[in-house]
Design goal:
By secondary structure, the protein is of the alpha/beta class. The chain has 2 domains: 110 residues, Rossmann fold (3-Layer(aba) Sandwich), CATH 3.40.50.720; 181 residues, Dihydrodipicolinate Reductase, domain 2 (2-Layer Sandwich), CATH 3.30.360.10. 37% of the residues lie in helices and 21% in strands. It is built from 12 helices and 12 strands. The strands form 2 sheets. It has a 6-stranded parallel β-sheet, sandwiched between helices. It starts with a strand and ends in a 10-residue tail after the last helix. The chain binds nicotinamide-adenine-dinucleotide. Nicotinamide-adenine-dinucleotide binds next to helix 1.
């Protein structure tokens, strides 16, 4: 397969490595707004660097869009117009209207667009979902979700990030829908600036929490933050009438028990998303290539991205107005 990679930054370089190791991929063409980045990543994986239009014009069997967020919608449109199946990193766009337009275009054209919510391919989340679906957990009473980044991003990242709910918690919102198979009824979000004043200067927070009620009545509690000195902490706990399980709780979880006799976590804790989800990123790309070959269903559609965005927007509104907000208010 000939695969085009559009965007050769942090996550683009990671996807390039995964593609290079895949036996279905014979050729990788790399394009980036910054030609030096494209060349560096192409050289690392034995691919070829070129302009974006040349990559799209070279007749690739698939494209992987990993450019900065504002480039996603135009690149998705270019792939759809050229009839090339695409994988695109989250989000489709930060704005609701632009996202809806892209989702409509993708759905009406019948194009393939898989979105990069890699937690759906993580072994722990997958096992929790299996247990929910088989009924092994019984009635789902409540869910606890957490995403705590080790270090805040640089200040210049914040204004265009969309804020903590669209940027960081979007993965929690997606996984909540996916794990439970249900939809969100209401979000009550809060947040504050506890460590880094520049978040306040951009109308954002560095510490966040939300109470979420699902349409079937299950409740979820979410916490997050931009600074965890112990490492990258992403977890979920699902409490049911028959059993309760934890995802992301292992010897590298950056959390230590203070109970007597409990062993300390192994060092090093997960330092970043690349290490925590290395296997999940590989599995999602493997799955995408199977979708391209017509051997698998698209597991994470454009509409899933829109639904996660609506929950994030409800959380934003809730934070602003200090009241519970339904995602249906957003649209
Ligand atoms: N799924 C995940 O866990 C995950 C993790 C990190 C980032 N992301 C998403 O991936 C995207 C990229 O994030 P990153 O951390 O790699 O950012 P980055 O800044 O490291 O890289 C972005 C790259 O895109 C390039 N670029 C900008 N505009 C472009 C255009 N019009 N055409 C082609 N290339 C262009 C930049 O030159 C840069 O090389 C973001 O949308 C982000 O939300 C997802």
């Amino acid at each position: 397969m000939k695969v085009g990679l559009l965007g050769a930054g942090r996550i683009g370089a990671l996807h390039a490595g995964v593609l290079a190791r895949d036996e279905d991929v014979d050729e990788i063409l790399v394009g980036d707004a910054d030609p030096e980045r494209a060349e560096a990543v192409a050289a690392e994986v034995g691919g070829e660097a070129g302009k974006i239009e040349d990559v799209l014009g070279a007749g690739p069997d698939a494209v992987v869009i990993a450019a900065s967020t504002p480039a996603h919608a135009p690149l998705i449109r270019a792939a759809v117009d050229a009839g090339i199946p695409a994988f695109c990193e989250k989000p489709i766009a930060l704005g609701y209207e632009e996202t809806v337009e892209v989702v409509d275009e993708v759905e009406s054209s019948g194009a393939t667009l898989q979105i990069g919510f890699q937690r759906r391919f993580d072994a722990g989340y997958s096992e929790a979902k299996r247990l929910v679906e088989t009924g092994a957990l019984g009635t789902i009473y409540s869910i606890r979700l957490a995403t705590h980044d080790p270090e805040p991003p640089p200040e210049e990242y914040i204004p265009a990030s969309g804020g903590i709910f669209r940027d960081l918690h979007i993965h929690d919102f997606d996984i909540l829908r996916w794990l439970t198979g249900g939809e969100v009824d209401e979000v009550y979000a809060t947040g504050s600036v506890r460590g880094f004043d520049f978040f306040a200067e951009h109308g954002d927070v560095d510490t966040s929490a939300a109470l979420i009620t699902m349409i079937d009545g299950a409740v979820a509690v979410l916490t997050g933050g931009r600074h965890d000195p112990l490492g990258y902490d992403v977890r979920a706990e699902v409490f049911g009438s028959k059993d309760s399980v934890a995802v992301g709780l292992d010897r590298r979880t950056p959390l230590r028990s203070v109970e007597p006799g409990m062993p300390s976590p192994e060092k090093p804790a997960y330092p970043n998303f690349q290490e925590r989800f290395a296997d999940a990123y590989a599995a999602e790309m493997r799955h995408f290539l199977s979708v391209v070959k017509g051997e698998a269903e698209n597991p994470c559609t454009a509409r899933d991205a829109l639904e996660a965005l609506r929950i994030a927007m409800a959380a934003d509104l809730s934070l602003d107005e200090h009241r519970p907000v339904s995602p249906s208010e957003v649209a």
